[in-house]
Design a protein that fits this description.
Layout: H1 2-18, H2 38-55, H3 60-68, H4 75-88, H5 93-107, H6 112-121, H7 126-139, H8 142-157, H9 163-175, H10 180-197
């Protein structure tokens, strides 16, 4: 009798504890596979765009790719949202390219080719990239930047003492995006000044 009472009370406890309303957010009633209402889809895509732009600046094409991945993000809706964001001044590839390039140059000295590649990865068109880089390198010439890059490398690794060290410096500067002629001129100049300094 006692066992029967225990098992019945356990069942009642189970019913009370586990059958009550679940905690947390209620489950959405909307089916994920059902098509969205166009107005709701537009609102969802616009909110997604606002979140993406709040996280970091993006180019138009970069944002377009991300918005097309959003549920309800059709080409027409994404184009409409992008047009509205441009109208509000939140999307401008020229401003994006210029601020991206100047920020990267303030962080560390890199060359024009590296910035061109980085902006092309951000899906900024070539004309906009060239205009932004011309403006940025007008205020910060590449010759000054390479001197800063060489000084930083020497501070970290010391002056090149052998041809192998000079080759490493040469390769490092090329990877940083400086032009071949500029790099070879500066490294040769550094090697010529080496015996005089010793």
């Amino acid at each position: 009798m006692y066992l029967l009472f225990l098992s019945v009370s356990s069942v009642v406890k189970y019913e009370i504890i586990y059958r009550r309303r679940p905690r947390g957010k209620p489950k959405r009633e909307e089916d994920e596979s059902a098509p969205l209402d166009p107005a709701k889809a537009r609102e969802r895509v616009f909110q997604r765009a606002a979140k993406l732009l709040a996280a970091k600046q993006r180019s138009v094409e970069e944002l377009r790719e991300r918005l097309l991945e959003t549920r309800g993000g059709t080409t027409a809706i994404v184009d409409e949202v992008i047009a509205r964001l441009r109208e509000y001044g939140y999307l401008d590839d020229a401003k994006f390219a210029q601020s991206y390039a100047s920020l990267r140059l303030r962080e560390r000295p890199i060359g024009r080719r590296r910035l061109e590649r980085d902006l092309s990865l951000k899906k900024v068109d070539k004309e906009t990239t060239n205009a932004a880089l011309n403006e940025v390198f007008e205020s910060m010439p590449e010759a000054e930047l390479i001197e800063r890059a060489i000084a930083k490398r020497i501070r970290l690794r010391g002056k090149p003492k052998s041809r192998a060290d000079a080759k490493k410096l040469f390769d490092h500067l090329l990877r940083q995006g400086f032009g071949f002629e500029l790099v070879s001129e500066r490294v040769r100049g550094l090697l010529k000044s080496e015996p005089d300094d010793a």
